[in-house]
Specification:
309 residues; mainly alpha; Na+/H+ antiporter like fold; 14 helices
Length: 309
């Protein structure tokens, strides 16, 4: 297989599913309720199956604890950098710090990483993702609520985290992996049955997610100046912090090969949930615009990663 055909094999399915998503919106083949249902299936059912298998089969060491902690602190640093850089650049918007931190790994990262590198190294990406997942489900949502008109409901926040299918799947996978239960089930074939179930459930996840993203890629009515400034600021912060975390990982674990996972993680857009927290239509348009442009940047970075291998 030539290098060009190898790149095409990775990139073309992504492009096709995005185009199908756009076509579904333009031709009204699927309405908004249908897309929301597809997202629910992908993120609440398919993705937990991926995470359950990934963490159950992963190897555990001190890095498994330290890497998520580093990523959590890095997300806090990105939020602070966005907050104070926004003030310095006169980009006064309460949502700006939330656009410069967090990563949309669930709706995009896992799908792209699997297409690029397969499932063999998915545990590396999941290990790095774990810290930012905990950040988004706790401090990120808490800070979002504090900036709104109503006080954040801590009980509701804890309930969402405790009963999130993603969190529950991670905990179950870690339990199976750390205790050695998964490895103990391999000789009997029970682990293979579990793998077959999770593989079958998670098979359509990438296609469903990319179709949904294509459906939501809308570029009309974009406030280009404000949106491009936010995207540029995020890229700058991600470049600085991404280089820092790569250097730290190389220093602490010279033999680890996590570069690919870090590159893709820091190319991802901010969490897609942000527009839900805005009650102002103009603000929602701004947030959706930044997310759409950030997604395009991610996809261009994905193509570049496919080209360089």
């Amino acid at each position: 297989m030539t290098r060009f055909s190898e790149v095409l094999r990775i990139v073309l399915p992504v492009v096709l599913m995005l185009l199908i998503g756009i076509l579904c919106r333009k031709k009204r083949l699927i309405d908004r309720a249908g897309i929301d249902a597809l997202k629910t299936v992908a993120v609440q059912i398919g993705l937990p199956a991926v995470l359950l298998h990934t963490f159950a089969a992963a190897e555990y060491s001190l890095a498994t604890l330290v890497v998520p902690l580093i990523m959590f602190l890095l997300c806090v640093a990105a939020w602070l950098l966005g907050k104070y850089a926004g003030k310095a650049l006169r980009m006064e918007n309460r949502f700006l710090p939330f656009l410069t931190t967090g990563f949309e790994a669930g709706m995009l990262g896992y799908a792209l990483f699997t297409l690029l590198y397969g499932t063999e190294r998915l545990a590396d990406f999941a290990r790095i993702d774990l810290g930012q997942v905990l950040f988004v489900f706790t401090l990120y949502k808490l800070l979002l609520g504090m900036g709104g008109e109503e006080k954040p409901d801590l009980k509701q926040l804890f309930r969402e985290m405790a009963f999130s299918p993603i969190i529950l799947a991670i905990l179950a996978g870690v339990l199976l992996g750390v205790t050695g239960i998964y490895q103990a089930l391999i000789p009997s074939g029970a682990a293979g049955v579990l793998d077959a179930c999770t593989d079958f459930i998670s098979a359509p996840v990438s296609a469903l997610i990319l179709l949904s993203i294509g459906y939501d890629l809308v570029f009309r009515d974009i406030p280009w100046r404000e949106a491009l400034k936010a995207v540029g600021l995020r890229l700058l912060i991600m470049a600085v912090l991404g280089a820092a975390v790569l250097g730290l990982f190389h220093l602490l674990w010279p033999q680890a090969q996590w570069d690919r996972a870090v590159w893709l993680m820091f190319l991802l857009p901010p969490p897609y949930v942000l527009p839900v927290f805005s009650t102002d239509e103009k603000q929602r348009v701004y947030l959706s615009s930044v997310l759409s442009l950030s997604t395009v940047v991610t996809l261009l970075g994905f193509v570049l990663l496919a080209v360089i291998g």
